[in-house]
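Anyone up for a design puzzle?
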């Protein structure tokens, strides 16, 4: 792996762009990946540190709001996934000892992780590679309905129980809207129904064993309804929590004329939806990070390579000239 560019702010987030393979190819961008490290103010890095890694070259799902979709050219190996993590770890902790109470690794930058079994292999190896008592992992998925994903989900329970018991694993399903037709517009792939997600999660999240609740993620967009009563009919608040996050500024969302229903500058814009979910008994996390992350390009759905190729950029995202630290790190 060769890191060829970095963007960001040491005190907020950094995005790394790396070439994973050097073999000849017709497309010089085919084997580029991006990975991210971030902190979550007001918590300092020595309290919580989050790494976000890629599992694919591009992504075959092509979600309507995500810049990483399209241009799919293969899956990363477990070694290539771990190389991203190792680059970020070793520059701060050369001996591999990470004395951070919450050291979180998210499989959520490029690629649908359930379509790559190497993600499971990387997860199993992580506790052996680093001395990290605070290690937690998070996997975000749209729950594609394919044989590869089905077998991934079957293996995932055992990996969680073996390596991340006691609430050190966070499983997140991206739902976004309760209108099935609209959901298919946003996530244009055959995927699990809400009924199947609920059924699978009964065996996955076992509160009596200390497992975390499964997260149902929504990035509310104008014109894509979210009905908490529908969610309550399918999901038990004792096993699921709700995460609401603004629709981040991406090239794709601008091209598709998607507008966020949550204004990150106005917490009142989410108050009605948060209250409606709470009335149904759900724990709700309103996840609004630093706005500077949008300008860095480190937030969910953002992908710097698409922004660089695009003739236009969202006005509140990808201020790459300001954040370019290095064009060739060697």
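Challenge accepted. My sequence:
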């Amino acid at each position: 792996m060769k890191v060829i560019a970095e963007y960001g702010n040491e005190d907020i987030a950094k995005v790394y762009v790396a070439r994973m393979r050097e073999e000849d190819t017709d497309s010089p961008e085919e084997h580029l990946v991006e990975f991210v490290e971030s902190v979550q103010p007001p918590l300092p890095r020595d309290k919580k540190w989050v790494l976000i890694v890629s599992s694919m070259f591009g992504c075959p799902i092509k979600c309507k709001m995500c810049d990483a979709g399209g241009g799919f050219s293969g899956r990363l190996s477990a070694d290539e996934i771990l190389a991203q993590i190792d680059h970020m770890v070793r520059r701060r902790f050369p001996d591999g000892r990470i004395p951070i109470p919450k050291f979180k690794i998210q499989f959520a930058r490029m690629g649908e992780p359930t379509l790559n079994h190497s993600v499971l292999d990387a997860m199993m190896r992580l506790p052996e590679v680093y001395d990290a008592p605070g290690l937690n992992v998070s996997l975000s998925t749209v729950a594609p309905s394919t044989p590869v994903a089905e077998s991934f989900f079957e293996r995932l329970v055992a990996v969680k129980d073996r390596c991340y018991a006691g609430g050190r694993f966070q499983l997140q399903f991206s739902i976004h809207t309760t209108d099935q037709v609209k959901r298919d517009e946003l996530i244009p792939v055959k995927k699990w129904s809400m009924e199947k997600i609920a059924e699978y999660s009964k065996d996955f999240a076992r509160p009596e064993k200390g497992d975390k609740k499964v997260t149902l993620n929504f990035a509310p967009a104008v014109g894509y309804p979210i009905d908490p009563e529908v969610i309550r009919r399918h999901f038990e608040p004792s096993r699921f929590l709700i995460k609401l996050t603004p629709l981040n500024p991406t090239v794709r969302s601008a091209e598709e004329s998607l507008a966020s229903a949550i204004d990150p500058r106005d917490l009142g814009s989410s108050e009605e939806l948060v209250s409606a979910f709470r009335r149904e008994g759900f724990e709700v996390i309103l996840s609004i990070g630093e706005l500077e992350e949008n300008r860095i390009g480190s937030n969910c759905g953002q992908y710097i390579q698409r922004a660089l190729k695009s003739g236009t950029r969202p006005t509140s995202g990808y201020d790459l000239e300001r954040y370019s630290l290095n064009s060739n790190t060697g």
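A detail worth pointing out: Residues 2-323 form a domain with the TIM Barrel fold (CATH 3.20.20.70).
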